[in-house]
Amino acid sequence: MRIVIIGAGMVGQRIAKALLAEDRDVVLIEKDAETARIALNELDSMVIHADGFSAEALDAAGLSEAELFVALTGSDEANIVACGLAAARFPSVRRLALVSNPYYLELPSGSKATMGVDELINPDVETADRIVHAISEGIERGLVLLPGQLRMRPVQVGKDSPLAGKSLPELRRGAERPFLIPALVRRGDFLIPSGRDSLLPGDLAYVLAEESAFELLLGAHKQERIRRIVLVGGTRTAEFVIERLAGSERRLGIFGRLARGFSRERPPELTLIERDGLRAKELARSYPELLVQNLTVSADSEEVESLLGGADLVATLTDSQSLNLMTAFRAKRLGAGKTIALVQTESYRKLAPALEVDAVMSLEESVVNTVLAEARRARIRTLHSFSEAEADIIELHVAADSTAAGKRLRELERLREALVLYVLRAEEAIIPDGETRIAAGDRLCLIARRSMLAKLERYFGGGNGD
Q1: What's the whole-number mean pLDDT along residues 303-315?
Q2: Residue 378 — very low, low, confident or very high, per pLDDT cuts 50/70/90?
Q3: What CATH number is associated with residue 211?
Q4: CA angle at 459 for the pair 453 and 460, rounded to the nearest 5°
Q5: DSSP code, position 54
Q6: Which structural domain range is residue 342 located in?
Q7: How far apart are CA 368 and CA 412, in angstroms?
Q8: Among candidate residues 217, 211, 218, the one with its CA nearest the CA of residue 145
C-alpha cells in the first residue's frame, strides 16, 4: 500500500515512521529544502523536494499507485487545494486534509466532496473528544477498552502483593473471574508474557478484566464521582471541551452526548481559568453554564490554589506545554483528584509520569492516530500506544475471506508475537484462551509490536492476506 504525504514536518515524519514500521510504501513531498533533508536522513523512504501542489510532484510520488493521500502542511487552504488537485488527477485515491480552522468542519459533506476532500482532520477536535471521553470515564489509571465491560489497569507488583511469585497460569486457575496480563514492564523492558512467565516484585503488570474481577483480584476499588472540573486556558481545544461538557448544541462528534452520563443527578460544576480578559468575557457570554475566572494560573495566589486544589479534576489546556505539565503537577500537590495535561509533541508527553500527571493528551498524537487508522486496510483501530515500547493495543475486523476465520487461537501461527485480549462477537466480549475459535465478522483486540501490524492486517483483512 502506497501512501503519499505532503508535509514532512514533525507530524509527517511521525506518521511516516509508523507506516514504514508496518512495512508500507511511503512517499513524502516537502518544499522546504532543510526539512526535506532532515526527513531524508531520518526516514527510509522517498522524500521529494518540491511543491506538493504541482501535477509533476504528484506524478513523481507515484500517486497513481497510491491508496491514500494526506496533506499536512501548515496551511488549511493549501491542504484542501492539494486534495482537490489529487482528486482531479486520481479520483480513486482517498484524500485527507489537516485543518486548524473549525469553519471547514461545519461545511456539508457535499461541499467537502466538491473540494476533493474525503476527510478533514482537526487536531483540536480530535484531542477534545479524547479528553471528554477520558473525563467521562473518571480518568481511571488505566484504559477502558469496552465501556462497562473491560478495563486494563497498570498494577505495581510489590513484594507483599498476592500476585508476586506466581505464574500466569497459576493466577488464572485461582481466579474466580477471567482476566489476562497481556503486558509487563520489568526493569525497564517491555514484555508480552507467555504462559511460562511469573510475576516478580517490581514488575508493572497490565491487568485486563471486568471491573468486578479487579475487586476480587486486587481488592475493592472506589471510584469517586467527578463533581468539580477546572479547565486552565481558553484555547480552541478548551472551547471544544467546554462545548461538550457544558451542553452546547454546537458540539461535534459523539462524545458530547457521553458527557451527559456523569450522573443522573446534576452535571459537574465547570470552571475555566483564563488570563486574557477579552477571551474570558467571550467564553463567559458563549457558555452561561461556565464559571469563568480571569486569573493568571502561574500566580502564587490563594484564589488560584483554592480552585486547583479543590477540583476533582484539573485539565490544563493552554498553548504552553511546560505550563500545562507544571500546573497539573502543582494541582496534584494541592489536592486535586485527577489531572490532564495537553501537550503538542511526544517529547513532552514522556515527562508526565515523573510529574504525577494522570493523563496526557497530545495534539500531535491525535493527528497521527487518525491518519494511521485511515491507512490500515483491515480496519485496524489503535486504542492505546505504550510509552515503554514500540507496541500498541489495536482492534481489528476479521474479514470473511481471512485465512484465520474458523481457526482456534492456538492454531494461528501469526499470533506468536501478539496476544489477543478479547474477541467481540455480537456485542459480547470474550476473554479468550487457546481453544477460542475465531469467526468471520469478529472484532479482535490485540497487543502487538508495531512491526507486526502490516502482517496482522493482511492476515485478518483477507484479500491478498496470508
Answers
A1: 94
A2: low
A3: 3.30.70.1450
A4: 90
A5: S
A6: 229-359
A7: 30
A8: 211
386 and 424 in a common domain: yes
Torsion of CA 78, 79, 81, 82, to 10 degrees: 110
Rounded to an integer, the average pLDDT of 137-155 is 68
C-alpha cell at 373: 487508522
Distance CA 83, CA 4 (A): 11
State the pTM of this model.
Answer: 0.72
Mean pLDDT along residues 132-142: 65
Q: What's the mean pLDDT when you consider all of the chain?
A: 84
In this predicted model, what pLDDT tens digit does every residue of 251-272 receive, in sequence order? 434 444 444 444 344 678 999 9
Question: CB-based contacts of 103: which residues, under 8 Å, 6+ apart?
Answer: none
CA angle 183, 184, 187 (to 5 degrees): 155
Q: In the chain, what percentage of residues exceed pLDDT 70?
A: 86
Distance CA 124, CA 175 (A): 43
What order of strands is seen across the sheet that includes strand 428-430? 381-385, 391-397, 443-449, 418-425, 428-430
163-175 average pLDDT score? 81
Q: Which residue has the higher pLDDT, 267 or 116?
A: 116
- Rounded to 5°, angle at Cα 14 from 204 and 53: 165
What is the DSSP code string of 315-342? EE-SS-HHHHHHHHHHHHHHT-SEEEEE
The yes-or-no verdict on residue 176 having pLDDT over 80 is no
The number of domains in the chain is 4
Distance CA 5, CA 70 (A): 5
Question: Is 154 part of a structural domain of the chain?
Answer: yes
pLDDT confidence bin for 461, thresholds 50/70/90: confident
How many CA atoms within 13 Å lie on the side-chain side of 448? Answer: 26
State the DSSP string of 188-213. Answer: TEEE---TT-B--TT-EEEEEE-HHH
Longest dimension (CA), the chain: 66
**Domain boundary residue among 89, 121, 153?**
121
Q: Could you count the other beta carbons within 10 Å of the beta carbon of residue 228?
A: 16
The secondary structure element, H or E, covering residue 285 is: helix 277-286
The pLDDT of residue 142: 59
Judged by DSSP in three states, 257 sits in helix
The 8-class DSSP code of residue 165 comes to T
